[in-house]
Design goal:
The complex is a heterodimer of chains A (280) and B (294).
Chain A: H1 3-24, H2 29-53, H3 64-73, H4 75-108, H5 112-126, H6 134-141, H7 145-168, H8 173-181, H9 186-220, H10 230-239, H11 243-271
Chain B: H1 2-8, H2 11-43, H3 50-57, H4 68-79, H5 90-121, H6 123-136, H7 141-154, H8 160-183, H9 188-196, H10 201-235, H11 245-255, H12 258-289
The chains are: A mainly alpha (280), B mainly alpha (294).
């Protein structure tokens, strides 16, 4: 046992004890923020000290400080990868996939027969390993971001379709009858009643698709990509045993993933403020 | 009676949608494979009529999109006509993927349940760990699968376990979230009732919280088992296309064997469907044993 390991363990116990004390205080927003933060910091400190204490080779697990240094020194590369994978691949596919799913859902909604068939099939397809389509999409659309966007479209389409179809069913007869007494047309009913009522379902689908989009775009790059992109960087730097670069790229992925999800959740809060789950 | 049930149920619409998808598939096969067929015809100085074009697009060796019957033929050839132990058998590859999936699924379920129990019974865990469990899923784990495989391989761990670790990471999350919800689902009034009976924390857990959480558990397990299959498939990619369904897809994409990729995909889909169905069956059996009335 060397001092660094002992230090790490001591820090862990102190932080743990402190967190337990905190959890016994009356909860407020500051505490709800502080406790997970403390836990995260503890994890990082443990990681740093243990990697140094046991002298773990940076080829296996680099220390957080080394990852941070690498992150700061390779910002331009990380930025190009981010643009290539997220902005071009994931975001394009996300918009096309979710957008077309909503349009198809609205179209299918006019044919109850098709809708009854599409719901079970859609939820079945959502459980399939669609990511396996990635090599085929790379073959069809080439190595650049178009094939990544195509994978993302496929991955997002069915979960979004199921959620949209369900969302469009969320209104009841009473509300429809009310719209009829107002002599509302189909489109007026759609935009003023049914789409707003479907919003919680739509946002549920949109939130699921944020993670799917990022995963799809990155994994599709393993099957062939230009010399930029987060998936490309991860697989080549693993091959060169530059694990600090890999972890820097993972940090970017985690930040982008959380930010993307957070933005959609924020939009949800603003659009569906009336829904019980958003009330405090 | 039966006719009525079929007419009112979802069977007909589902069949119609599946038929529509297959028809669309055949149509897309014509569209996507036509350039190559025209190219071949051009080299032989022949022109293609519509019937010949359709026949040519549905029977290419390396089509851009194989027609459904080609995939079915390939599936038949690689499952029924070769011994299951052979390396050319798709059953062999499916079993390798399935074993990693099941191991990862089991580990993920146990980890998920343990975490959920700790979170429900300990306020510090709830406040400090739960946000990180949610945040952990915004990291695209599938993207770092190659690194996990390589790092574990350099520690001397190869074969089943690294893939199972990735499956575990993907499957523990739905279990934690579902179980936390489920273990907290008993009403205040029921908890108070157990309190008046002087039930201990353990008794409350075994007699009230656990049974109440089971429906939530099974709903989560269905999501988890599908996710863990995806994890196992992706985990097979960086091992260099040795064995497993993921490896079949990768080697298919190296050599342009589209029919092979599609048959691996169909096999993976069959696996996913059967696994989800099995969990559904377990749910119904457990429900019956516990006296759930339909």
């Amino acid at each position: 046992m060397n001092t660094l390991v002992v230090g790490a363990l001591t820090f862990w116990f102190v932080a743990w004890w402190f967190n337990i004390r905190l959890s016994k205080l009356p909860q407020n927003r500051f505490l709800a923020f502080l406790q997970p933060l403390l836990f995260g910091v503890t994890l990082l400190v443990l990681w740093e000290f243990l990697v140094r204490g046991f002298a773990i080779s940076p080829v296996l697990l680099p220390a957080p400080s080394a990852i941070g240094a690498r992150f700061a020194s390779s910002l331009p590369i990380l930025w190009t990868d981010f643009v290539q994978t997220f902005v071009k691949g994931a975001l394009t596919g996300y918009v096309i996939g979710c957008g077309s799913a909503i349009l198809v859902a609205v179209a299918v909604d006019r044919l109850p027969f098709l809708r009854r068939g599409l719901l079970p099939v859609g939820s079945f397809v959502s459980a399939l390993p669609i990511i396996g389509m990635a090599p085929i999409m790379v073959m069809w659309f080439g190595f650049d971001w178009q094939s990544k966007a195509a994978v993302v479209v496929l991955m997002c389409f069915f979960p979004m379709l199921v959620n949209s179809v369900q969302g469009l069913l969320a209104t009841d007869h009473l509300q429809h009858d009310l719209m009829r007494t107002y002599a509302a047309s189909y489109w007026q009913t759609l935009f003023k009643l049914r789409l707003p009522a479907a919003a919680p379902f739509l946002f549920n689908g949109l939130k699921i698709c944020t993670t799917l989009a990022l995963i799809g775009a990155i994994v599709a790059e393993f099957f062939g990509s230009p010399t930029a992109g987060m998936g490309f960087r991860i697989s080549t730097e693993v091959g060169r045993l530059q694990l600090d670069m890999v972890w820097a790229e993972i940090t970017v992925a985690a930040l982008v993933g959380s930010a993307f999800y957070g933005l959609v959740a924020l939009a949800e809060r603003m659009v569906t403020f009336w829904h019980p789950s958003q009330r405090r | 009676m039966i006719v009525q049930r079929i007419a009112s149920g979802n069977t007909l619409p589902v069949l119609a949608v599946v038929g529509l998808i297959i028809a669309l598939w055949y149509l897309m096969a014509i569209v996507l494979n036509a350039p190559w067929a025209y190219d071949q015809a051009g080299r032989q100085d022949t022109t293609l009529g519509f019937g010949e074009l359709v026949a040519a697009t549905w029977s290419q060796d390396r089509p851009r999109l194989p027609a459904p019957h080609q995939v079915t033929a390939e599936l038949w050839k690689t499952t029924i006509e070769v011994a299951p132990t052979s390396r050319r058998s798709l059953f062999h590859h499916a079993w390798i993927t399935l074993s990693a999936t099941l191991l990862g699924f089991a580990m993920g379920t146990v980890l998920g349940i343990l975490l959920a129990v700790a979170i429900v019974h300990n306020r510090a865990m709830d406040a400090s760990v739960m946000p990180w469990i949610i945040a952990s899923q915004t990291i695209p784990i599938l993207a770092i699968a190659p690194m996990i495989i390589v790092v574990l391989a350099s520690l001397g761990l190869t074969g089943l376990l690294p893939k199972a670790v990735i499956s575990m990471y993907l499957s523990f999350f739905p279990v934690v979230v579902g179980m936390v919800k489920g273990l907290r689902s008993p009403d205040r009034i029921l908890l108070d009732q157990l309190h008046t009976w002087n039930a201990s924390e353990v008794e409350t857990f075994l007699k009230l919280r656990w049974p109440a959480a089971l429906p939530y558990l099974f709903a989560s397990l269905k999501v988890a088992v599908a996710a863990s299959l995806v994890g196992a498939i992706i985990g097979e990619l960086p091992t260099g296309a040795v064995a497993g369904l993921g490896a079949r897809m990768l080697s298919g994409s190296y050599y342009g064997q589209t029919v092979q990729i599609w048959s691996a995909l169909v096999m993976a889909s069959i696996l996913a469907a059967s696994l989800v169905a099995l969990v559904g069956l377990a749910e119904r059996v457990t429900g019956r044993l516990m006296g759930v009335r339909p």
